[in-house]
Please model this.
Amino acid sequence: MINNSQYTEKLRNSGLRPTKQRIKICEVLFNTDKTFHFTINELVEKISKSTNHKISLATVYNTVHAFKKKGYVKEIPINSDQSYFDTNTSHHHHFYDESQKDLIDLDEADVEPVKINTKIPGKKIKSVEIIVKVEDDNT
Model:
């Protein structure tokens, strides 16, 4: 588990002032044994429930995006207007359950290596991350 001085360091490394609200964001994100996926709105709700205080959507949004830039969380875009964030920043893949609106980890070992046959001039592949979209089987 991480203590408040480590949260303060994470915030300062991300270019943010360590306020009470941002410390609370750190506690919810990083004071857990399990990694998890979240949307910004889900995180606001989770923080509000755990503290019985409202927290600004803008504060959460800006803090999460600052953490993303520093590599403390990873953004998983689902479509053009929906993203999840992941506290597990290691290389891994995901199932996205479209019925439940749920993102589920898929271990890299469960996916065969992907061969990319096209190259973009002047670019190199940084990573390949797969999102497998699933829905309820109504058969």
The chain has two domains: 4-85, 90-134. DSSP finds four helices and six strands in the chain.
